[in-house]
Amino acid sequence: MWRSVVGKLWLTIIGLVTLLLVMLSAFLSDQVEKTHQRSQQESLLALAHKIQHDLEKKGAKRGTYLRDMLRISELFDTYMIVLGPDGAAEPIGVSPTIANVPWQQLLEKTDIDRVLRGKTVVMKDRVFVEEDEGMPFPLFKEDILMVAVPLKKGSQIEGAVVLYRTQNQLQSETDIKKWIYYSAIIGFFLTTIFAFFLSTRITQPLKQMKKAAERMAKGEFNIRVPVRQHERDEIGDLAATFNRMAEQLEELVHALSHEKEQLASILRSMADGVITLDADGRVVLTNPPAERFLSAWADEMAETLSDDPKERLPLPLREIFETVVEDEQEHFGDIEAHGRTWAVVMAPLYANEQVRGVVAVLRDVTDERRLDKLRKDFVANVSHELRTPLAMLQGYSEALLDDIAQSPEERRELVQVIHDESLRMGRLVRELLDLARMEAGHIEIVRSSLRVSELMERLLRKFHTIAREQGVQLEGEVEPDLPTVYWDEDKMEQVLTNLVDNAIRHTSRGGRVSLQAMRTNGSVRLIVQDTGSGIPEEDLPFIFERFYKADKARTRGQAGTGLGLAIVKHIVNAHGGNVTVTSKVGEGTTFVVQLPIGTPTDTTRERDKGRG
């Protein structure tokens, strides 16, 4: 309590009032004492002068007068001693109350001499009185007020009159002092109560504001301090100002919270990754794409990470960060991390003209870079695929024009080459157009009821002659009781034609190509398997891309256009199925096409909207 405002204010008021009461009591006591003493002195001095005047005139009646004055003075608590010329007390001139008290204890020798020399003596002193011979020390009475005036007869000193009053007779002065002290004590207690009441009255609003400030520190910005309109003093104005501050702070916090939520929503909805780093390279803020990026990087580099926060960043990102902090300029570039390409734009953040961190925006441009590469490869591949047949057409046509062929057989051979190359060019253009329509989402699927066994028999008859010429054994196996499926017959025949043609072309003489069909969990699985040269493992992820070709040595000079497998994938995806491949170099390749059976309601014409 003593450390609180109430305690400090209360103690301050009590201390000040106590000091004031003590000083006032001391001052009043001193003034009362001086006033009473002066009054007593004046009274005793007037009485002494009266007795002096009367004794100087009484003459023969002096004894009677002294006895009368002794009795009268005792009525006023005053005692009298009449001294002779030699300083000895006259027997009749001593008050009976102190007849057993040596008068020498009441008046010092020097004072007697002064009185006998004609001086009036006024003094207040302490006198010691021996009341009992058996006492080891004398008893005393304080505050003996005494006056002494000389008795004269003409110009000659006949003696002196001494009047005094003891402490018992000065008791009224002591009573007044007591009442002063009692009043001071009462004033102290009243001031204590008043000070406590005043302190509580003043500090109660302060306590309310303190509690309100504590609740505001915990986030309760809607708290308000009650303000009494009839007590609009400084504290009331302070409470009103506090309420205005709380209201403005609440509005500011709400605005900041709204902006923070809006910024967080924007960051969460961004497709680009945003990372905020401090000057030491610690991650301060991220959005979900950036978190996925950092998480994938941390999982990939978990064993090599150190305690340095900058070491936890991908090395290319760390290099850009250090460059931005050093140059204090924006930098951008591409980085490779966990198999993907990210475009990074990193800019410094300033605080008091010093770099306090950086903000980095990361965009996954893997697909864009891949598309750029595909476009470049497309142009290069188309140019390459068209260059050979065009060159052959030009060469053989010039040979015909120059009549190089001398016999009809030679001319027929040249025309046959020109015809084959033109067919190849037509097939290439046709496949390019089909693939472009498929990739644009304009592939049309015309479903109809189809028996898989009939489709397989037709494929075997088509490639029987080609397989025999190539020295390849072609086999087919269809599981009994396969259900009727609802596929686009022409396009599925195109799929199987591409797969079987590739299998025969990549299988050496004496090899085997098998075509199988079976039912699995509500779908039909078509398998094309060969014992050819196989596909390297590093080429498997790319074989369904257009114009992609594996080692040309495996084709025995019968390379295709590189578009067949891309068309296969698009057609299978358009049917709601999927195609997979497994291969081992020197042992062969297996393509598996799995398609849903479909229902009679799917026989209408459908347009694929971008599958695959």
TrEMBL record:
Q: Does the keyword Cell membrane apply?
A: yes
- Identify the residues that the record assigns to the HAMP domain, covering every copy: 200-254
Instruction: List residues of the Histidine kinase domain.
Output: 381-599
- What InterPro entries does UniProt report for this protein, alphabetically? BphY/WalK/GraS-like, HAMP_dom, HATPase_C_sf, HATPase_dom, His_kinase_dom, HisK_dim/P_dom, HisK_dim/P_sf, PAS
Which EC class is the enzyme in? transferase
Q: Which reaction does it catalyse?
A: ATP + protein L-histidine = ADP + protein N-phospho-L-histidine
What EC number(s) are associated with this protein in UniProt? Answer: 2.7.13.3
Main location per UniProt?
membrane
Q: Which UniProt keywords apply?
A: ATP-binding, Cell membrane, Kinase, Membrane, Nucleotide-binding, Phosphoprotein, Transferase, Transmembrane, Transmembrane helix, Two-component regulatory system
Q: Which residues form the PAS domain?
A: 259-301
The answer, when asked if Transcription is one of the entry's keywords, is no
Q: Which residues are listed as membrane-spanning? A: 179-200
> Where in the cell does this protein reside?
Cell membrane
The name under which this protein is listed is histidine kinase
Q: Which organism is it from?
A: Polycladomyces subterraneus
